[in-house]
Structure prediction request, 473 residues.
Amino acid sequence: MSSIKLKVEFLGGLDAIFNHVREHKISLPYSGEPPKMSDLIRHLADNVMTDKKDHHIFIEDGSVRPGILVLINDTDWELEGEDEYELEAGDVLTFTSTLHGG
Amino acid sequence: MSSRPKKVVAPCELCHARKPVMKRPKTLQKLCKECFYHVFETEIHHTITSTQLFHRGERIAIGASGGKDSTVLAHILKTLNERYDYGLELVLLSIDEGIKGYRDDSLATVQRNKIQYDMPLEIVSYKDLYTWSMDEIVSCAGIRNSCTYCGVLRRQALDRGAAKLEIRHVVTGHNADDMAETVLMNLLRGDTARLEKSCAILTQSSGSPIKRSKPFKYTYEKEIVLYAHYKKLDYFSTECTYAPEAFRGTARTLLKSLEAIRPSCIVDIIHSGEHFVLREKKKRTAQYKNVKKTDEQEINADGSVSLSNGKKEFKDGNRCENCGYLSSNRICKACVLLAGLEASRAKVTIENDTTADGAAKLGKELEQLSF
Prediction:
């Protein structure tokens, strides 16, 4: 089992459900195939989220809930293959909620 | 940064040179940062000029909450005002609802914006205007209706703040997603009267000196968030401590799910909203019949009854008899809400005095009586 080191940011108020911490250093364990974005999202929901009750705030239908903006190294994840993106060591993943007031 | 072979990425669809960083929801175009800034700013400029939103020399109050939308709005209006020489005088206007742990923090952001954008800042508070802070209102009226109170009071507070500054035009950061959400909600509630008006970029009732407009009417929330992020704008983002009403929240979720499948649906809904036209009359009279209920305070101190009730036609420019604010009814909605609060404030003392179980109910009944 190896692992990959990543930086994850929760912005737009999303940090509230991740221990009120905006920047997380994540070591994502994996075996075999290099991990994908979907593996990270599952890991965040299962192991990093403070309270399982908040699951629905982050996840819908197995992926990030619509209305949460995802950036991979500051690029819109829609340009990077979304869930299918293959993670690399040192990647910065940003999750920003747009679901509330401005 | 990596040893993995780089994927060949098609360049930005506008400049055909730089690496794209985002996909526009409205057009699905893949753009680089610079081109994104350019189209984002230029579209808003076009919205402003094609609707003749401002005139030279106009003083504009920007309703500033410290959140993403109003922060980007302040930044954009300052940028465009300088770039295209609109000749506007821009002022930040903030409302302090009195919500500990939320508004106090976001107001600190507005204070920084004031310096960053070099604009004067005026803050008006619920407490000063109405003698009630939102925290006090919620402790009295419960959390369930907090958005109703807050919405009604904020509307007035912005007008009063503008009047205090002698400004006749307030701009707010309402974006395309907000507009579409409002259309959806009015549709789902059958509120056809509001539906017709819900997409106007500029609203003004004839009796009011204060106009309101939404320069971000066609601007997607996603792009506002990205713009703020890439430009590293200083904005505040924490959920209001009083959760949004369930209906609005659900409408928002629905909209976001639709957007995920068909990103253009947000402008499409706005387009639909703009083209709703009510059949003439009909609803109007029926609707204003209901108003009577709030008019029950019509008995005067000497026991006489005012007879102005006969025909209740909505006239733009009617004023609340209590506070002088614009209102379609004799007493404006804010005053009605506040009167209800005063009654339950009294209820609290009754409860303390008597410790009777039925005190709350009694208070409710007292509230219904009118003197």
User: Anything to note?
Assistant: Residues 37-48 of chain A form the longest helix (12 residues). Strands of chain A lie at 2-11, 23-30, 59-60, 63-64, 68-72, 75-76, 92-97.
